[in-house]
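Final report, Chapter 2: Outcomes

The project's central promise was a pipeline that accepts a single protein chain and returns its three-dimensional structure in a standardized token representation, suitable for archiving and comparison. That pipeline is now operational. To close this chapter, we reproduce one record exactly as it appears in the project archive, with the input sequence first and the structure output second.
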Amino acid sequence: MRVLYKKVKLNFWAELVDLLDEKIVKLEGIEKKYGENFVSFFHEFIDKRNVKDLIESFGVPHTEVDVILIDGRPVRFSYIIEDKNMVEIFPKLSENFWQKYSSDKELKLIHLKPKLSLHKKFVCDVHLGKLVKKLRMLGLDVYYKNDLSDEQIINVSKSEKRIILTRDLGLLKRSDVKNGYFVRNVEVNEQVKEVLHKFHLSSEIKFLTRCLECGDKIKKVSKNFVKDKINLRTFRYFDEFYYCSNCEKVFWCGSHYRAMKNFLNNTIGDFKHYFKV
């Protein structure tokens, strides 16, 4: 019986290039050609496959993809790949990019990434505990427990409309995940910069508004209120305190606060107008 191979050309654009699984690329002996802002290569296969499965077979989760063009036509993830298709895969890109990319004014893109709400909420996997605390220190709404299963993370994401932040590409490839992002950086301060930039969060920074432990909102309380809840040295040195009624934690503008303030000013820009003190 003769085996009929299908041969397609794939172009992965912009930041998606970073997610390509180099082991798979080398194993298949793929020769990549680099364009100005993309990587291009040919691929052969024999099975019936939709474009989502094809893209994810090279390491790129569907949650990172916003537009797919097949022979210049926009399609959805369910499209079944045909022989000699030209497959172009794009992340979320600006209108300016698309104006330069296509001269076809009739091209109506199908955006596959769900629209984000103005107030963005997140849920983090168990490996991002350090990032969680820093994002909460900035006042961002982040759900986290150090024993969450993948199923629980997905359920929280769907029920509360939260964006999944993870270092696990396998989690983002699950078909029931609709909104997620793979955190590229490993070092926590770089992760903070990455998330702030990716989701345009600078205007949402509000220091000392959320509990670092549980993520609930905290409120300013009187000095006498915390007298029996903190050590005497802290009580004498500081005058402004915040309290979480959910986990009964007390917060003040100590060394962690000053370190984060310096971090933002030195590495991201001048955020002084977002600080409480």
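Archive annotation: The domain at 6-101 is CATH 3.10.20.30 (Ubiquitin-like (UB roll)).
This record, like all others produced under the grant, will remain available to the consortium after the project formally closes.
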